[in-house]
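Hi there. Long-time user, first ticket. I'm pasting a complex I've been working with (about 503 residues overall). I'd like to know whether the download I got is complete or cut off, because the file seemed smaller than I expected. Thanks.
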Amino acid sequence: MKPSTAYSQYHPKWHRTRVSTLWWSRKWSYLKFMLRELSSVFVAFYVVILLLQLHALGRGPEAYLEFQLWLQNPLLVVLNGIGFLFVLFHAVTWFNLTPKAMAVRLRGRRLPNVLVAAPNYAVWLAVSALIVFLLMRQG
Amino acid sequence: MANRSNEPFLWALFSGGGVAAAFLIPVLLFLYGLAFPLGWLQPPDYERTLGLVQHPLTRLVLFLLCFLSLFHWAHRFRFTLYDGLQIKHLNPAINLFCYGGAVTGTLAAAYLLWTLP
Amino acid sequence: MAETITIEVARYRPEQEAEPTLQSYEVPFNKDWVVLDALNYIKDHVDGSLSFRWSCRMGVCGSCGMTVNGEPKLTCATFLSHYHPGPIRVEPLRNFPVVRDLVIEMTDFMEKLQSVKPWIVREDDPAPAEGEFLQTPEQLDKYKQFSMCINCMICYAACPVYGLDPQFVGPAAIALAQRYNLDSRDQGKQERMDVLSQHEGIWGCTFVGECTEVCPKNVDPAGAIQQYKLAATQEWFKSFLMPWSKP
Ligand code: SF4
Ligand code: FES
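Hi, the file is complete. Here it is re-exported in full:
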């Protein structure tokens, strides 16, 4: 980082307050931001579970059963519950922020944000339903 | 266009991962983390699961999900460490941890999906 | 006596104190008064040594930004009644060095603003006699929102990224760069991109989104930055996949 040169030249005695390390706890919107960013930890956490699942799947039925039993560990269930809330939070914030980044225009007018976000939710529902269907279908 | 940074590339992976994770992970985590272990729903057995995952399209989707989600995590977590803890001076270590982790996970995903029976 | 309200003002007089301190004043509680009116009352009737900036009193000049009860606000548009019964704490804008009392040092912002060339850049630069550049209402509409910025720096005060890393170009400068990028008369996109595609440009932003929340003019700098990221990424892939194509 190169030092900001402009300052002290004119005002040798200016006062600068340092940002505290806990700045994000000062305000609900900052805290929400931090939680949103931390949701990524649970995204990675799920990928690890998925990798373990694939690993077990590759090693045969016994290993897979073992994996399924391992998932019943109460500690893991609690962690997964928390993780689920976080990834849900990630999904909702992500869908709501897309319109801001896109600025979709139709016939020269900018589409209202709700209209840009709505298809996200529709696709989300459809994808989730499809996955449940694929996994739960009998036979 | 000298010294263009690679940030756009990393940001694209981050965004792709954000989309993939948002669409797929909530339902998957709900099923495998809560609904199946707690007995709310009956999980598909080994044969069926294997059959589903063996399909080339599933393999592709799962690979992309792992790859992009991990880079999504790497990007966000890197900035969270920078800003949240103000430890920007540890930059190289943070980058190694985040992107190294993402690359390792991606390779693992590729290997596991490739060697599936 | 009529009702009064307490105003706690941050004082910093570099010649006599090393750290800012708070000083309380009682001012008449007048429903129609804004925080700036109270400060002017103090300056005119109680303590002439209080320093602060203001000019237009109507949310146009952008010079009266301060921290009111922890939130960055235009003090000429923030009513006392909103904080009744008080007390109201008035501090200088966050994330900037304080010169005196409520006056902050803004050279850094001015330099950043200039670095993104917030004016119409032309390759040809025709003489005024050749006539004006034409623009349709639709073309105007594309950037109008971003052109409402009054350079009040309130978004900088709300931005944790700027607070943590003063090298970050910051919300308003990027929104204004985008304002000119989207202007049909402008040809300076590439020059601005060179500045903003640096790490300290758009990539420092983590989309906290607070700049958009606090902006008194609904400029939506956070949106501008994300749109810029998207554009820069498309540009990057284009020049990566097709290095021969001229940007
Ligand atoms: S973008 Fe809004 S908050 Fe920021 S300087 Fe401009 S008017 Fe002020
Ligand atoms: S005094 Fe001009 S904006 Fe408040």
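A couple of notes from our side: Helices of chain B lie at 7-35, 46-54, 56-85, 91-114. Residues 10-114 of chain B form a domain with the 3 helical TM bundles of succinate and fumarate reductases fold (CATH 1.20.1300.10).
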